[in-house]
């Protein structure tokens, strides 16, 4: 990761399963979306496109949290089918669950398309 704070954060994650999940996810993102820049803001590992938030990751003892801003409702059925916990703004992957990379790709593609012309870090308020 280019932002060394993410590497430091990864090294202190208590759950070795969550640490491995995140390392795999970040490597997958870097391979499949090399245009995204990584950043560590608000105690969260994030990926940005042209300075705009695309996806963020946080971790707790038993899960990884993924945030897309307010767009998770668009993926509600797929998140539920994958067996992940969700709210309106985030989803959680349990440390013993596998990562659905197809769903992750759909989320990132959705964000990239929807934020292509946005210039601010977050979506403008409606």
* Distance separating the two termini: 34 Å
Cα-atom radius of gyration: 14 Å
List low-confidence stretches: none
- Tally of strands: 6
Largest sheet: 6 strands, antiparallel
What's the shape? globular
CATH architecture label: Alpha-Beta Complex
Structural class determined from secondary elements: alpha+beta
Set out the fold topology.
Blueprint: H1 4-11, H2 16-32, E1 37-41, E2 44-49, E3 52-59, E4 63-67, H3 76-82, E5 85-86, E6 90-94, H4 101-114
Antiparallel strand pairs: 1-2, 2-3, 3-4, 4-6, 5-6
Brief summary of the model shown:
This protein has 126 residues and is of the alpha+beta class. Helices cover 37% and strands 25% of the residues.
Describe the structure.
It is a single chain. The chain is built from 4 helices and 6 strands; from the N terminus they run ααββββαββα. It is an alpha+beta fold and 126 residues long. It has one domain: Aspartate Aminotransferase, domain 1 (Alpha-Beta Complex). Strands 1-2-3-4-6-5 form a 6-stranded antiparallel beta sheet. Pfam families: DUF1801. This is Iron chaperone.
């Amino acid at each position: 990761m280019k932002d060394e704070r993410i590497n430091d954060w990864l090294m202190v994650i208590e759950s070795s399963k969550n640490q491995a999940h995140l390392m795999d996810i970040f490597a997958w993102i870097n391979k499949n979306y090399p245009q995204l820049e990584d950043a560590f803001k608000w105690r969260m590992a994030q990926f940005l496109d042209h300075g705009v938030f695309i996806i963020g990751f946080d971790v707790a003892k038993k899960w990884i949290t993924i945030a897309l801003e307010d767009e998770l409702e668009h993926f509600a059925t797929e998140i539920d089918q994958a067996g992940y916990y969700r709210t309106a703004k985030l989803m959680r992957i349990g440390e013993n669950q596998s990562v659905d990379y197809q769903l992750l790709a759909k989320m990132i593609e959705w964000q990239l398309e929807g934020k292509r012309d946005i210039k601010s870090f977050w979506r403008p308020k409606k």
